[in-house]
Amino acid sequence: MVQPAQSPEPAQSPEPARSPEPARPSDVPADHVIVLFGATGDLARRKLLPGLFHLARAGLMPRRYRIVGTAPAAEALTDQEFRTHAQQAVAEFGRSRPEGPAWEAFAAGLSFGAADTGAAEPLMAAVREAETALGGTPRRLFHLAVPPVAFTSVIDLLGATGLAADGKVIVEKPFGTDLASARALNAAIHAVFDEARVFRIDHFLGKEAVDNVLALRFANGLFEPLWNRDHISHVQIDVPEHIDIQGRARFFEGTGTFRDMVVTHLFQLLGFIAMEPPVALEAGPLRDEQVKVFHSMRALDPAHVVRGQYTGYRDERGVDPASDTETFVALRVAIDNWRWSGVPFQLRTGKALAEGRHMVTLGLREPVLRMFPLETRAAAEGRSNELVIDFDDPGSITARFLVKDPGPSMRLADGDMLFNYRTAFAAQDFLEGYEHLLLEAMRGNQSLFTRSDGVERLWEVAAPLLDAPPAVRPYEPGSWGPDGIDGLVAPYRWHLPDRRGATP
Question: How many CA atoms lie within 13 A of 413 on its CB side?
């Protein structure tokens, strides 16, 4: 588990270099050769290369390592060009400036080898040279930062060349687009890598707040006794995005918000929120309990789903003028087990909404308020007790409850108790989602990665919606979604926006 911490400075204004706390020996992975497929692409530029450099500065990279970038021959770079590309990426998106001895040591470990199907010799030579430079028997980690259509061809290349031998592979979302494609992708992966070497990455699960859900719930007698249907009335997982599709029409038209966000992000959070206590905080027990939640989920009812599309989406370049692709989805999910029977899980996410947030809200059942005057209950605006987990980096936890409003009368008012990572812990201990997950993949810890049977079960749950999706409803950019979403959560209401005039 990674120590929670203060948020970094914005990427465009990197912090001056400073010395982080020394890493514990148990945190440092074994020697590695890391191969980045799609090394010239957007994900590598924005997240992977800056993230790997931050791990190096924090002392969390292996004692000896090499990073080999690869892309098709048409996009091939020399070693020096790749180092320049990485330096520009870290300067633009990283948290520390790419300069001084730390950068020189990192850049010295970068090399490049192009690879096409049937023509992978430059990559194979680059990997051999990296392993020779390290000496011993370094481990191999392959990160597939490539479009989903290329997953199978890259996996086949790794198998045909022998590069996959004893190596691990990180696969980016989406993990298929329905049950059939998920099964086909898993079969292709398992033909080359056994499941113990597969890391399906969801950067949401790398956030400090996900680990902290486990600590909050299982380490505190204040909360664990309440974490069930006797005390919780409803759960909301709300991930609105302020940005629109940002020119990604080709990807988005073939995917949509449900496939892109709900199956791969929100359902994974649901699994962590709803799981039974694992026997240990290890990959096997944790993922067993998460998959049990997925098997307890009822198949989605399209009548409990609202799909939306923001006004102007069909005018985007590359979008079908008659497109029915959703840019927004809200849905109600039911879990049929002892702990959660009768508790609705209310999920919402979409593009071009009023704010970008990552929130989980657990609404606690309202006690009997008959002793309080009617106008006092109305003053509480329908909100009783809530536990609100903000998954933004670095995140916060707010306990909301009712208190007496000062004065001569007994009137109720909202009160908050806030825990904020920003003020509680040191900035240098904080890792972003991708950094955390890259580190765990190198260490071989699959706790925060999705298992194949869990992926397939979620596509089974989603099948009724995929087979008969309701028509999209229009909504204005900057709103909270289309009309009709309030009915999904009645008699409750969406936590966002805050009725008191500002979001928490």
Answer: 9
Q: List all residues 6 or more positions away from 460 whose beta carbon is below 8 Å from its beta carbon.
A: 179, 299
The C-alpha atoms of residue 120 and residue 105 are separated, in whole angstroms, by 27
Q: Count of alpha carbons within 13 Å of 262, Cβ hemisphere only?
A: 33
Instruction: Say if CB 314 and CB 352 are below 8 A apart.
Output: no
Name the active-site residue from 54, 234, 265, 304.
265
Enter the tokens of residue 491: 């008699």
Residue 424: its pLDDT value, please? 80
Is the Cα dihedral 384, 385, 390, 391 positive or negative? negative
- Give alpha helix (H) positions in 12-150: 42-43, 49-57, 79-93, 100-108, 121-134
Residue 143 sits at φ, ψ, to 5 deg, of -110, 120
pTM of the model: 0.88
Is the separation of the CB atoms in 370 and 377 below 8 Å?
Answer: no
Q: What's the pLDDT tens digit per position in 79-110?
A: 999 999 999 999 999 988 999 999 999 999 99
Identify whether 242 is a catalytic site residue. no
The CA distance from 274 to 189, in Å, is 29
